[in-house]
Specification:
The complex is a heterodimer of chains A (210) and B (233).
Chain A (H helix, E strand, L loop, with lengths): L10 H28 L6 H4 L3 H7 L8 E5 L36 E7 L3 E9 L4 E8 L4 E9 L8 E8 L1 E7 L4 E9 L5 E9 L2 E5 L1
Antiparallel strand pairs in A: 1-2, 2-9, 3-8, 3-10, 4-7, 4-9, 5-6, 5-8
Helix pairs in contact in A: 1-3
Chain B lengths: L1 H25 L5 H10 L4 H14 L1 H11 L5 H24 L6 H19 L2 H6 L5 H22 L7 H31 L3 H4 L1 H26 L1
Helix pairs in contact in B: 1-3, 1-9, 3-9, 4-6, 4-9, 4-11, 5-8, 5-9, 6-8, 6-11
Classes of the chains: A alpha+beta (210), B mainly alpha (233).
Keywords (chain A): Membrane, Transmembrane, Transmembrane helix
Protein name (chain A): Transmembrane anchor protein
Chain lengths: 210, 233
Amino acid sequence: MNDSNPPIQSLRSLFIASGVATLIAGFVLTVFVLPAEYGIDPTGIGKKMGLTVLAKQTTAPEPVQAMAISLQPQQTAEITCPEPSDSEQNSVKTSQNSASAAAPQWQDTVKIIVPAKQGLEYKFHLKKGASLEYSWATDGAKLYFDFHGEPKGDKTGYFKSFKVSTDQQSSGALTAPFEGSHGWYWENNTRSPITVILNTKGTYRILGLM
Amino acid sequence: MTSTKQTAGWLMILPLLLLLFAPSVQAHGVDANTERFLLENQGMAIGPFLYIGAKHMVTGYDHLLFLVGVIFFLFRTRDVLIYASLFTLGHSLTLLFGVLSDIKVNPYLIDAIIGLSIVYKGFDNLGGFRRLLGFQPNTKVAVMIFGLFHGFGLATKLQEFSLPQTDLWKNLLAFNIGVELGQFLALMFILIALDFWRRHRSYYSFSTTTNTLLMSSGLILFGYQITGYLIIS
């Protein structure tokens, strides 16, 4: 209990206090907060004060979050209910020797969304000498990318770039020169989000978005 | 009071720590978002998350208003500590639980409830419950329960950063400790201000006004968040 025995207000002053609190809140909300935050302006005062300008920025679509969504390998259909793949599928997989050279059986397919004016990394853990076959493509727009590896346990920030370019697609194979995390840094310099579909195959553990 | 100085000292060092890690990050030429993830990569996210947690609490006026309401009539240091600890316990539980089990509470709804917690405390300070119900609802239990809601609010803020799964608990713990540091710091300032005011007679004569305004602020926050919920969610 409080040791200062706060005064108990009379019923009348309680009503007055609650009423005044509600009135002030209602006034501040309708005149200032709602026009400025959401562009809701029943009184028109918000517009006169130029507050509704602020709302136009806030009611703009929320910036897209960076996302990686696991797809069924070789499935390119849009997924309706995305699930972030960060925590999924961390089991080490070994490549199956598929004889068909024409269309390689991809092991993993992931859809990655790179938000506008942002960069992100998607990585795999590879042991030294392990292989990673890959092929990725965007929905048309070009991305700056840096395909690189970082040695395991390295704290200096050292990384080795395998391929740096700006393109809408890239494919190839990597034999890891050292054990560590290998993958892409993609940077989207456009004003709208870009979707990357990445197909991979090899002996690796998915680390996912970083 | 050396502990306050130490806390302040630590908080001042944090930005410097961030600077220390910066060169290794710049090597990648990344933006601020990825920068965080890179820090994570190198297992050095403790500093940033401490800072984010502390900053969130110091600038989180909803949490602070509630705290003002809670300690408004607490004159003993011991009581302030007990209530602050209960609040801390409550929000730490749900912050950790919410993030670790990936429970996504709608941030508008949770912030609306936090607004109501401020209204509750203001009304409580006016003796409203004793007048209307004839008894005082347990203040300790109330602080604890509202602490749980505030924790979910903190969790939603942290979930806005797309948190990598690696070392999640470390970053989470750092954020939580940061929140407590921030709360401690903010509480110090609030207490100093209240203490100063309590020496004047106006404290009691204005207590009705203060708590009315507290209720009003809570209602404004509530209306703001509920409108957001109805429009956006």
